[in-house]
Design a protein that fits this description.
six-stranded mixed beta sheet, single chain, Rossmann fold, 473 residues, globular, binds pyridoxal-5'-phosphate
Length: 473
């Protein structure tokens, strides 16, 4: 399998070539040249597999430059009961007839990002060892991504993590999760500023190409193809749990921000998984809902980006969305030309674009529908789900659940992807239910653990000095 860029660069690259890269050199996102189709016999065979073996089968279709035995061992080491809590890895829980929640948040940081990041940690370690290289991951986080990256990379050979977060602004639980890590390859840098300051520093360091090359600086952002690929697996696993035979269809509802999670659903559907609808659920930051209703993609400015109680979906633009647009337009050379115009000319110059009527008319054949949810909707959904089912859902999953109910069709099971556990967002749970969220065993006293972090001013220089000092050490 070779990979191409959504903006037209067709230099042949294998999986291992793009694994450690971010954007393609032309600014586009990597996609496989084609999507392998899964026929009925294959689907029937996969139904009986463990999660790890299912993951191996799916990954193998896209990875031909890692020996099969190595890949199988790596995947089996990743998706274990020890890391994800159950042998099923992503167990399904039925609420009403035909409406289920797929648990994706039982990994170490209690959010679905562990599903991909844990695999990425093992893939990075493997590939770096094979190349005799090192990688220093630099990132900015306001919570979920940073902790998922740290728990995936802790103790990994050849990898260091430098994670910037706004000093004193994360929730006590999130701080405790990240700062209690004692692994010497994990560096928590608490920046005296807000999240945007952290992100600006990361950008400034990454734009210093000399520094970047000299210190092997890389990222683990959500546009990484390997992360998306890892997420394709749980759509298949959810389908097999919700159905008895492969002539049934299901729909998925996905709380969405950067369009990474639901883009994996689009890939699964394109491969032939019988998905009826892909329900894209947003919060008040409704860039994606607006697109699916109108065909207009309009990036928001920071003044228009709301701080909500489902903060991991507070985005101004959806960084993975370009992949879907490229596929919508035909996944070919002409599509790349058009995608390049939309995302490298119209988005920067006009703040967005409106698809042609003929282009937008293709969206329904891809299964996408959408909806949005507000703070009041979240509270109502959390209360209702607790009152009727004694199930506590987090704020993001509540957004998914609210929009899912608007799109249920008779005879088609609707699977809502749970993207985090309520323990991570205690304040809104207290507001909705007047009680503390449940906390998984082992995390009860986490706030009292010793913390390991360094406070730095919101300036590029001190961060660079810190990296230099700790890469040579
Ligand atoms: C990252 C995240 C999302 C959004 O996922 P995307 O892949 O960016 O669409 C939703 N919920 C939670 C809890 C997250 O951490």
């Amino acid at each position: 399998m070779k990979y191409l860029s959504t903006r037209g660069d067709t230099t042949p690259r294998g999986f291992a070539d793009i694994l450690l890269e971010g954007l393609a050199p032309d600014g586009g996102l990597y996609l496989p040249t084609h999507y392998p189709k899964v026929d009925a016999a294959t689907l029937a065979r996969w139904r009986g597999l463990s999660y790890a073996d299912l993951a191996f089968e799916i990954l193998s279709l896209y990875i031909d430059d890692i020996p099969a035995d190595d890949l199988r061992a790596l995947v089996r080491r990743t998706y274990t009961r020890e890391v994800f809590g159950t042998d099923t890895i992503v167990p399904l829980r039925w609420l009403d007839d035909g409406l289920a929640i797929e648990a994706l948040s039982n990994g170490p940081t209690l959010a679905f990002k562990d599903m991909a990041m844990q695999l990425l940690g093992n893939l990075f370690e493997y590939e770096l060892a094979r190349r005799g290289q090192q990688l220093n991951i630099l990132g900015a986080t306001s919570g979920d991504t940073g902790s998922a990256a740290e728990y995936a990379m802790r103790g990994k050979k050849g990898i260091r993590v430098f994670m910037l977060s706004p000093h004193g602004r994360m929730s006590p639980f999130q701080q405790a999760q990240m700062f209690s890590l004692q692994d010497p390859n994990i560096h928590n840098l608490a920046i005296e500023g807000v999240f945007d300051d952290c992100q600006d520093i990361v950008k400034a360091v990454s734009n210093d190409l000399d520094f970047k090359r000299r210190w092997s600086i890389g990222t683990v952002n959500s546009i990484n193809w390997a992360r998306l690929l890892a997420q394709v697996v749980y759509y298949f696993a959810g389908y097999f749990q919700a159905t008895r035979s492969n002539d049934e269809r299901v729909s998925f509802a996905v709380p969405s921000g950067n369009f990474g999670n639901i883009c994996a659903g689009h890939v699964a559907r394109t491969m032939g998984l019988p998905i009826a609808k892909l329900v894209c659920a947003t919060n008040e930051n409704d860039v994606l809902d607006e697109f699916f209703r109108t065909g207009t993609y309009r990036v928001r400015g920071s003044a228009e980006t709301h701080e909500t109680s489902s903060p991991s979906m507070d985005i101004s633009k959806a960084s993975n969305f370009e992949r879907f647009v490229f596929d919508l337009l035909g996944h070919d050379v002409a599509a790349a030309t058009r995608t390049a115009d939309l995302f490298s000319v119209q988005v920067p110059n006009a703040g967005g674009f409106t698809l042609g009527a003929d282009e937008f008319a293709r969206v329904p054949s891809f299964g996408f529908v959408s909806g949005r949810s507000t703070h009041a909707d979240r509270l109502a959904t959390i209360r209702d789900t607790w009152a009727r089912h004694r199930v506590m859902v987090d704020t993001h999953t509540a957004d998914g659940l609210k929009v899912a109910r608007e799109h249920v069709e008779p005879g088609v099971p609707m699977i809502v992807l749970e993207t985090a556990l309520p323990a991570k967002f205690a304040a809104t749970i207290r507001e909705a239910l007047g009680r503390e969220p449940e906390r998984p065993p082992g995390l009860e006293g986490i706030e009292a653990l010793p913390k390991r972090f360094t406070v730095l001013p919101a300036q590029v220089g001190p961060v660079k000095h810190y990296i230099e000092a700790h890469c040579t050490a």
